[in-house]
Amino acid sequence: MSTEKSISKTDEEIVAEYRSTGNSELIGQLYNSYLHLVYGLCLKYLKSRDDSQDATMAIYEKISQTLLSTEVQHFKSWLYMVSKNYCLMELRKSNPEKSVHVVMENDIVTHLNDEEDIMESKLSALDECISELKEEQQACVKLFFLEKKSYNEVNEMTGIDLKKVKSHIQNGKRNLKICLENKNVNG
């Protein structure tokens, strides 16, 4: 019966329950429903069944820990980015010079479904735009939006005055919107 109950819940509700209870069965069931996507993504980048299986398990362990302290708005998109970043880090560790070429070849040869291609394109554009922000704006925006830190936490972590933190976040958000519009990325 617990399986039926968790099936009727959204991914985000399951994550919230996992955060409050620490019940690893919840995250296991949730991850299981995306296991094939994570494995496929790992296979796309790592080109090895064994490495992809190892990566799939490592990603599960990583998200199990991360989700205890991180609030996630859209689990599927978040999982996709965590998985992709994990694979890219593995490629960089094993062969830093070739990793960019491997990723580019994989992107050309292997096509994900349309939704994932669009998401990857938007996230890539967002990444580019974030890197174009001024250093202090970039730090504040990353901590506030990506790491879900409060204004006060951003202030403590960066040493930037609280009013300036709010200003950097507001201006950074506006600059990101302009940058994304210039790249023709719609919300």
Could you describe the 3D structure shown?
The chain has 187 residues and is an all-alpha fold. The protein is 83% helix and 0% strand. The chain has helices at 2-7, 11-21, 24-46, 49-69, 75-94, 96-109, 114-132, 135-146, 151-158, 162-182. Helix 8 (135-146) packs across helix 9 (151-158). The longest helix has 23 residues, at 24-46. The protein is globular, with a radius of gyration of 18 Å.
Question: What's the short version?
Answer:
With 187 residues, this protein is mostly helical.
The major β-sheet equals: none
SS elements, strand count: 0
Structural class of the helices, strands and pairings? Answer: mainly alpha
Give the CATH topology of the largest domain.
Rna Polymerase Sigma Factor, Chain: A
Anisotropy-based shape: globular
Over all CA atoms, what is the radius of gyration?
Answer: 18 Å
Order of helices and strands: HHHHHHHHHH
Number of helices: 10
**Residue fraction in strands:** under 5%
Tally of structural domains? 2
Overall CATH class of the largest domain:
Mainly Alpha
